[in-house]
Design brief:
- With 423 residues, the protein is mostly helical.
- It has a domain of 77 residues.
- It contains 14 helices and no strands.
- Helix 3 packs antiparallel against helix 4, helix 10 runs antiparallel to helix 11 and helix 13 packs antiparallel against helix 14.
- The two termini are 57 Å apart.
- The N terminus is likely disordered.
Length: 423
Amino acid sequence: MDVGRTPGDGESRRLQQLEAEVHDLSRRLDRLEKLSAPGSAAVGREAQQSRRAAFEARVGSQYLNRAGIIALLIGIAFAVHWAFSNNLLGAAAVLALGLTGGLAIIFVGQRFIRRGYSAFGLSLEALGIAALYVVLWAGFEVYRVFGAAVAFAGMVAITAATAASAIAQRSELLAIFAFLGGFATPLLLAADHGREFALLIYLLVVTCGMALTAAYRRWSNLLIVSFYACVAVTTASLISSTQGLATDLPLVTACYVVFAAATFLLRENRRAVAAVLPAATAAYLEFVALTLSPTETGLVETAAGVALLLMAARAGARMALYASVAIGCFVFALPALLGWQWPSSLAWIALSVVLMLIGFRRALPFLRWSGLALIAIATLKIFIFDLARLAAINRVLALTLLGVALLAMSFVYQRNWLRQGPR
């Protein structure tokens, strides 16, 4: 112990040090309050003003723009019809004038784009493109100046030229306009009955072009909009088809394969995959169910599930989504192959056990959750539907197998959970 040093000296120094630290913290807190209180209010006001300015700019530059395009397009249509009805111009002259006007509007739009007014210029291009489609449709459907082949060739040329321009300008919006026109062509030429198969082939070609464009430029919105446009056009074409659904199945299958492959090429984009892949699979399998027998439907659903599993193995971060859609295919394939009686329930239970085991072995929670959901659905089906339709001995067998499966899954789940912990 040092000479002349009392035990209270150390405590006094520590107390002084603590007081100094408290004083320093109080001073810093006061400074933060002075800086943050008015600043936060200013930031809030600036954010509110920014949101108002953004909304005002969107209304002024986009909504008014689109409303103007629609008004002008309708006005052009009425002007063409009025000139023809009043014999001011012949049909050929009216169509020539319309085509010239559409091309002129596109040219003016490109001039605005080169001067830096991209949004306004693209809007004018869209107006010109729509005008060209309307003129070709009117020449075929209304005025009968030329046949379906000429109208079809003209619309294909417009779609191809617009798509090429969109790729060159890196404009996804223009690409959407281009392929919407391409998908609308079969509807615009729907009056030409007896050529549904040829139009579906054209639809497949447009779908392939869209998929390549979306994959090349990584345009997810193009893929999403094109998918729903393709569904609408395909549905309308099949409803009016005179050939039967089975004849159109190969082309519908090819379109589905293209969209599934496109989602795989854009698998890094969660929004595109989530919006297209499940919907495309559901729409395709619904068409298959309406076209084929239950056994054939089950085989197609199984094949689709296997293909999606192969894609899931290389899907990276989107593996769970591809695998989940594949599991859905297998879930619906089993009743199609086995019927909706209790054997399909047992098959669901077996599938849920497989999903659970793989989920633990590969540390994939979504597989474990899929197994739990499927076993719950199978259990409800057995108790609500199957037992009422089974003989006494089959009821005993079904409940025994269900009970053993549930206990085995519970044991496997608890053992792996306790050993590995939640993942």
